[in-house]
Amino acid sequence: MTLINLNSENKRIFFISFLITFAKYLIIYIHSDKTNFSNIVFNNFEDLYYLPYIKYLAELNFYPSFSEHINNSNPIVIPYGSLIYHAIALKLFGINSFIFIEFISLTIFLYLFCNILKYFYSRGALNITIIILSIPLILQILNININYLNFFKNNFFDLRFPRPLIINIYFLSFIFLILKEKENIFIKNKNILFLSLILSLSFISFYYYFFIELLTLSILFLIHLKKGKEKNLKKYLYGILLFLIISLPFILNIKFAENNFTERVGTIQITWLDKEKLIIYFFQKLTKFNIILISAFILIFALCIKKKISKNYNIKILSILTFSSIVAPILFIIFSEKTSLLYHWTNSIIICFFLLLLSLILNYISKIKFNFSRGSIFYFILTFYFLIFLKNIYDKNLDNKNLNENYNQIFNKINQIPNAKQLQTLAFDQKVTVWLIMNDFTRLNLVSGIYVNYKNIDIDLSLVQTFKFLNLNSNDLVNFLKNTKKNWRYINKYVQNFYLYKYTANSLKTANSELDFDNNEMNEFIKKTSPLYSQQLAIPIKDFKKLEKTFKETKLDRHNYPELIILDKDNSILKKNNLGTNYCTIVSNKSFELKIIKKYKDYCV
User: Fold this and answer.
1) Which band of pLDDT confidence, cut at 50, 70 and 90, is reported for residue 107?
2) pLDDT tens across 360-413, in order?
3) Distance CA 550, CA 460 (A)
4) Is residue 2 very low, low, confident or very high in pLDDT (cuts 50, 70, 90)?
5) Residue 239 in domain
6) 222 exposed, middle or buried (CB, 10 Å; 0-12, 13-18, 19+)?
7) Full residue range of the structural domain in which residue 173 is found
8) Residue 593, strand partner residues
9) Number of domains in the chain
């Protein structure tokens, strides 16, 4: 007699998800500051920079502003398809409820992926699922770097929100539905409506998957059209209507959004010359040796087992999906006037290639007599995976422990100040700013450009006024934002924070569409940078001169002087501030210094 009856596969999936979620937060809790559990959830929320969007959606606030002097009638864009669950949970139960959503999302992901694998290998699909998900973690612990497996871990199965945690659930739901229903996908009312729901959520959340799904459906529809499915026109109209009902608010949100905001989150206009360059580059990327090698391996493997897959409709579906992932970006580039973050297209292609290759391998080994579904194998694999997962979480938590303690010390001290939320607050660190937003601070001197509907000039003025307030000069501001080469790209964390993709610099896009950077060497480097590298950021000389001119012309007449200040201690420019005797220090650690205006000197050290 066993302590836990896990005969049902769904029970096992539920148990695995619970075990992973519970163990993750138990380890985090043990090694964290236990005074505020909400801060623990905040510090360990995967991709916490989406948190303000969740809060805005929960409050239906599409016009966020933290200054009484800045008013803009255009909204920001909120991709509510992937944020809606967290927004509802935040509104009803607070940030701690995100743990429960993470558990539910993990359960659904494992259920979908496991059931997709069953169409190619029915025995022990859950065990195979765990083995597949274990491989990248094992290699990470062994310090073995294989790019495609690292990519798989980060972009296919990861607890990062919203991608891939939520977005890949929509993608896997689409694949599962077309595998399950096959040609009936175009007949049954519930299938058509569910497809419309998935397509609309994909469109709102991650349009790259939406266009791949749409093209895949179009090809499948043409294949089955000769069988009389065109008679279901009324059902298709209902599906289109449902899609429009869910998607129309998002379409209108994009149409009326602040142009400077959409620029900062990565949207760019593309000309016919840009389209030509992108398509040529895309084909060159596809013909690189590693892509050819993978494609050749899949083709040879498929030919070797042709008899086994000739009647396997499921393999054909994934082949169409992979084909669509290659064609969809080309069609999108041709017909769209705008594009954004092109690397997501190549990421989607790799994921589809992986699923196709995996399906071929499983289909081939399905004839092997070895039974992967044995209970003893399940417990062995689960124990092995669980130990690897714990080691991975422990190492990650250990790496962030000191920095998180510094953040928590600042957050806890701020919480001890009565009415702190009403104080005019200045912070430079993006994570600190996110915490302030999530804790209802409404008067902020500086805010990341991706969280407000400000125009770019408003952000320029905010920075200029802040540096004047700190008694720093225009050279200090230029050095604060200077172009810095780190590893494979130019990146400055403060440029990334305040402007993000406005200053993307690659062979396709630069600010002002000019190569006007620090020197010829930098110009050449950017000129040769792949258009996929949207995350390389550099400010042109022309924009630095414009900023210096703004600095010279700006006065502090309308500046809201901060009452609470959080300074980054690792920045040499900010260390030069001259606040005089008007402020005193509440707390100082290795990362930050928290200051407050002297009328609250009772809180100072």
Assistant:
1) very high
2) 888 877 766 656 656 566 667 777 777 777 777 777 777 778 888 899 999 999
3) 8
4) very low
5) yes
6) exposed
7) 167-265
8) 567, 588
9) 3
What tokens appear for 368 in the block? 């092997």
State the Cα–Cα distance between residues 473 and 419, nearest whole angstrom: 33
DSSP assignment, residue 75?
A: P
- Is residue 3 packed enough to be buried (19+ CB in 10 Å), middle (13-18) or exposed (0-12)? exposed
Triad 159, 165, 167: Cα angle to 5°: 160
Residue 461 lies inside a defined structural domain of this protein: no
Question: Looking at the structure, do residues 218 and 255 belong to the same domain, yes or no?
Answer: yes
User: Which 3 state secondary structure label does DSSP give 314?
Assistant: helix
**Is 428 contained in some domain?**
no
The order of strands in the sheet holding 564-568 is: 425-427, 564-568, 592-597, 583-588
Cα–Cα distance for residue pair 442/438, rounded to 1 Å: 10
Q: 26-65: per-residue pLDDT in tens?
A: 888 887 777 788 888 898 888 889 999 999 999 999 999 9
Same domain? 367 vs 276: yes
DSSP string, 415-474: HTSTTGGGS-EEE--HHHHHHHHHTT---BS---TTSS---HHHHHHHHHHHHHHTT--H
Handedness of CA 284, 285, 286, 292 (dihedral sign): positive
Domain end, chosen from 535, 553, 571, is at 553
CA distance 351 to 206: 14
260 and 337 together in one domain = no
Cα–Cα distance, 426 to 445 (Å, whole number): 5
pLDDT classification of 125: cutoffs 50, 70, 90: confident
More confident residue, 414 or 157: 414
pLDDT score of 372 = 60
Mean pLDDT (the chain) is 87
Count of other CB atoms within 10 angstroms of residue 104: 14
3 state SS of 33: coil
Are both 209 and 279 inside the same structural domain? no
Q: What is d(CA 391, CA 21) in angstroms, rounded to the nearest whole number?
A: 14
Amino acid code (one letter) for 476? D
